[in-house]
Inverse folding.
C-alpha cells in the first residue's frame, strides 16, 4: 500500500475520534479529504480560525496537491483564491510562505495532517520577517496590530457577504 | 512491530531497516536511501542531526554504509548537470556567469576536488611532467632535481639537496612520467599511486602484489618438493620425465592445501612432500 493511501486511513481514524489524545486537532481541523475518492493526489482541508485572532469563527478551505514523488517531495498547499488575508499568504493566488513546505526544509516524516496543522499555527502566529504580502507585512512591522487585524476583519466580513449574495 | 517513519508501513520483515549512526533513528534501508536522492544534506528526517554512516544489520553481520561518499557523487553529478545547462546557452553567458559562480561556491565544499592531484614541481610549480624527475613517496610531492639543488644552494646546504622540501625525507624516488605534450598531468589519489616512478592505478598494484605473493609462496613450496625428490632412495634424476611429472603433481597438491600461501609453521612441508612423492611414484609405476 502506498504511503498516501496509508495516510488516508490514519487521517480518517484520527479526525473521527473524540478522544483529545487520539485527535489533538479537534476545533482546529474540521476535515481533510481527497476531493475525489479515486484520486489521492488532490486533497482539500477545512480549518477553523484560531481563537483570539481575527480569523476566529471563520472557516478556510485549503487545497493540497500531492506530487507523485511524495513523501520525498513536499505537498503543494495553497488557500482558495481571494479567500484570506495574512502577511505570509499571497491573497490573489492563495500561495503560502511556510519554511517546512519548501524542498530544502521538508522531511519525509511529516504527513498531510502535520502540514495542515502547521498552516493553522501560521494563522495564529504570523511570521513578520518573511512576508509574502508586503503591504500587510509593513503594517504589522510598524507595530500597528490594531490596523492589521482591522483590515483582516473587514476583508473576511466582505468575503462572507459576497458569498451570501 | 516496527514502523518506518518514511513509508509508514509496518510490514513483516521483508524490508530491512537501517539505523543512522549518530541519532540511532531507524528507517527502511530503501526509504532513507531514496530520501538522500532528494535531500540537500545528510540530516536525520526526524531530529535533523547529521549522520555520515548508516548501520545495517546487527552484531557480526552489521554493515556500515558511508553516506558521505554517495552524497558527494550525487552532488558532483548535480553540479555537472547544472554546469552543462549553463554552458549550453552561450549567448546569455555573461549574465549567467555570476549565477554559475554562486553555484560553484555552493557546491565547492561538497566537491572532492582536493583528491585530484596535479603533478607539478614542489618548488617552482611547473607542470611540465616530462622534466619532473624526483618524487617523495610520503608527501606525494614531485620535484625538479635542478630546483632542489638550487634551493639547497640558496639556504647554504649544498650537500643535502637530495631531500623532500616538505618532510625532509631523503628517500626520494626517481620519476619517469615522460612527455605528455604540454598537457598538465594529474592523477586521482583515491585510485592511483606513484610507484617506481610511474603513476599507477591502485588496482594494478594490488594485483601485482598478489601475483608476487603467490609466486613466492609457490617457489618456497617447490623447494621442499625438490628436496624430497632429490633425497629419494632411487636416483630419480635418471628419469627426467618422471621427475618433472611427480614434481608438478606433488607441488600442485601442496599449493591447494593452504590456498596458495606458504605456512611452514602450520604444515610440515618436508614430510608432506616425501609422502606425496611416494604415493605419486607408486601410482606412476603402477600405470606403467
Amino acid at each position: 500500500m502506498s504511503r498516501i493511501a496509508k495516510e488516508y486511513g490514519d487521517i480518517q481514524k484520527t479526525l473521527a475520534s473524540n478522544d483529545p489524545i487520539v485527535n489533538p486537532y479537534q476545533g482546529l481541523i474540521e476535515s481533510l479529504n481527497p476531493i475525489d475518492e479515486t484520486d489521492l493526489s488532490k486533497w482539500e482541508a477545512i480549518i477553523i480560525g484560531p481563537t483570539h485572532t481575527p480569523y476566529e469563527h471563520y472557516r478556510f478551505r485549503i487545497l493540497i496537491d500531492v506530487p507523485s514523488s511524495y513523501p520525498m517531495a513536499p505537498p503543494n498547499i495553497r488557500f482558495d483564491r481571494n479567500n484570506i488575508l495574512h502577511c505570509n499568504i499571497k491573497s490573489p493566488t492563495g500561495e503560502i510562505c511556510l519554511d517546512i513546505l519548501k524542498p530544502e526544509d521538508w522531511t519525509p516524516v511529516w504527513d498531510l495532517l502535520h502540514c495542515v496543522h502547521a498552516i493553522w499555527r501560521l494563522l495564529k502566529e504570523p511570521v513578520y520577517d518573511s512576508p509574502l504580502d508586503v503591504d500587510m507585512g509593513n503594517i504589522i512591522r510598524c507595530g500597528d496590530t490594531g490596523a492589521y487585524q482591522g483590515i483582516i476583519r473587514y476583508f473576511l466580513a466582505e468575503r462572507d457577504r459576497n458569498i451570501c449574495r | 512491530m516496527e514502523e518506518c517513519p518514511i513509508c509508514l508501513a509496518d510490514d513483516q520483515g521483508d524490508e530491512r531497516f537501517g539505523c543512522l549512526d549518530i541519532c540511532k533513528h531507524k528507517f527502511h534501508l530503501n526509504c532513507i536511501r531514496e530520501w538522500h536522492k532528494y535531500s540537500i544534506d545528510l540530516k536525520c528526517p526526524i531530529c535533523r542531526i547529521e549522520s555520515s554512516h548508516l548501520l545495517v544489520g546487527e552484531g557480526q553481520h552489521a554493515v556500515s554504509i558511508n553516506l558521505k561518499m554517495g552524497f558527494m557523487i550525487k552532488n558532483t553529478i548535480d553540479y555537472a548537470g547544472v554546469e552543462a545547462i549553463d554552458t549550453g546557452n552561450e549567448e546569455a553567458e555573461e549574465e549567467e556567469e555570476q549565477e554559475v559562480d554562486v553555484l560553484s561556491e555552493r557546491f565547492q565544499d561538497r566537491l572532492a576536488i582536493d583528491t585530484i592531484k596535479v603533478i607539478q614541481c614542489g618548488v617552482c610549480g611547473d607542470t611540465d611532467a616530462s622534466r619532473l624527475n624526483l618524487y617523495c613517496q610520503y608527501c606525494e610531492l614531485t620535484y625538479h632535481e635542478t630546483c632542489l639543488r638550487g634551493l639547497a644552494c640558496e639556504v647554504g646546504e649544498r650537500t643535502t639537496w637530495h631531500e623532500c622540501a616538505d618532510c625532509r625525507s631523503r628517500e626520494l624516488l626517481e620519476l619517469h612520467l615522460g612527455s605528455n605534450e604540454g598537457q598538465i598531468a594529474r592523477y586521482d589519489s583515491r585510485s592511483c599511486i606513484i610507484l617506481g616512478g610511474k603513476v599507477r592505478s591502485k588496482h594494478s598494484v594490488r594485483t601485482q602484489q598478489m601475483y608476487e605473493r603467490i609466486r613466492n609462496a609457490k617457489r618456497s613450496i617447490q623447494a621442499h618438493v625438490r628436496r624430497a625428490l632429490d633425497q629419494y632412495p632411487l636416483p630419480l634424476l635418471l628419469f627426467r620425465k618422471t621427475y618433472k611429472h611427480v614434481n608438478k603433481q606433488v607441488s600442485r597438491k601442496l599449493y591447494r592445501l593452504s590456498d596458495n600461501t606458504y605456512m611452514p609453521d602450520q604444515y610440515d612441508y618436508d614430510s608432506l612432500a616425501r609422502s606425496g612423492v611416494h604415493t605419486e611414484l607408486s601410482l606412476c609405476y603402477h600405470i606403467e
Summary: The domain at 1-99 of chain B is CATH 3.30.40.10 (Herpes Virus-1). Residues 87-115 of chain B have pLDDT under 50 and may be disordered. The CA atoms of residues 128 and 183 of chain B lie 7 Å apart.
